[in-house]
Amino acid sequence: MSGTALDEKLYLGGPLILVGCGKMGAAMLEGWLTRGVSVRDIFMVEPHAESAAPFAARGIVHASSLNELPAGKAPAVIVLAVKPQQMDTAIGAGAALAGPGTLVLSIAAGRTIGYFESGFGAAAAIVRAMPNTPAAVGRGMSVLCANAAAGSDQRALAGSLMAAVGEVAWVEDEALLDAVTAVSGGGPAYVFLLIECLARAGVEAGLPEELSMRIARATVAGSGELVRQSGLPASKLRENVTSPAGTTLEALQVLMASDGLQALMDRAIAAATRRSRELAS
After folding, report:
1. What is the separation of C-alpha 32 from the centre of its chain, rounded to a whole number of angstroms?
2. Residues contacting 22, CB < 8 A, separation 6+
3. How far apart are CA 217 and CA 224, in angstroms?
4. Is the pTM of this model over 0.85?
């Protein structure tokens, strides 16, 4: 299932409680507001006043804890955007606020659907989402997984909420979220490391440090935008850059050797996937 178009208005069907307004929570909140969600429909729970201040200034109700929220009807959605170690507290208070039709959407890594069902009840509609940091600029990638209690409308709402910050995909097997965490969750860090390495290699080849970093940043950013807009497979774009017997081919023969980039990336993703499974156990 793909994400909802970014220019389509987002309809919640009731109040939304956002628990946690750190970098990812703030990115999602900005996306929802851009998609037309009213500030009157959002309640923000964030203990750090400085993180909440920009949104509170725009009219969003702010509380430092779930227990401080004003009384009202049960929320349509509770979005849990706190760190995994803070989740027990959030679930305890959140379960008291949730109604029979409340959707619980979590973006916490390492906390399973079963974990949330134990707090909210097996009949609660639970969706886990694994977004990544490009959500901050509306170019995130989120992969979602729902429990059996989440109906089609609730799944659609969860997808729309995450589509406000980028692309959305679904998996039916929750175990796949460990690999998703390794690939897309950590993926931005791998790309940033590529920029660092490319720039450092340029310096080793004789380029001034500032120029080399500028080239590396622009090259990776431009290549990402090209692959996004062109619709062509990455392999085809690589081939388009590679001239027979040219300089790029010389470099690719190193990077694509049996002990090259693919083997290194396979080991890296396997290590991250293994760690994600350990955190969920």
Report:
1. 14
2. 51, 81, 82
3. 11
4. yes
pLDDT score, position 3: 41
Q: Is 122 helix (H, G, I), strand (E, B) or coil?
A: coil
- The pLDDT of 238-258, averaged and rounded, is 96
What pLDDT does 5 receive?
A: 45
Asked if 12 contacts 157 with a C-beta cutoff of 8 angstroms, the reply is: yes
CA distances from 268 to 16, 141, 180, 239, 265 (A): 37, 20, 13, 25, 5
Q: Is 137 left (phi over 0), alpha (psi -120 to 50) or beta?
A: alpha
φ, ψ of residue 182 in degrees (nearest 5): -70, -40
Its CATH class, for the domain covering 16-177, is alpha beta
Structure tokens at 113: 């659907």
Segment 120-128 mean pLDDT: 96
185-197: pLDDT as tens digits: 999 999 999 999 9
Q: Compute the distance between CA of residue 278 and CA of residue 273 in angstroms, rounded to an integer.
A: 9
**Cα 62 from Cα 66, distance rounded (Å):** 10
Taking only Cα atoms into account, the Rg of the chain, rounded to an integer number of angstroms, comes to 21
- Superfamily of chain region 187-280: ProC C-terminal domain-like (1.10.3730.10)
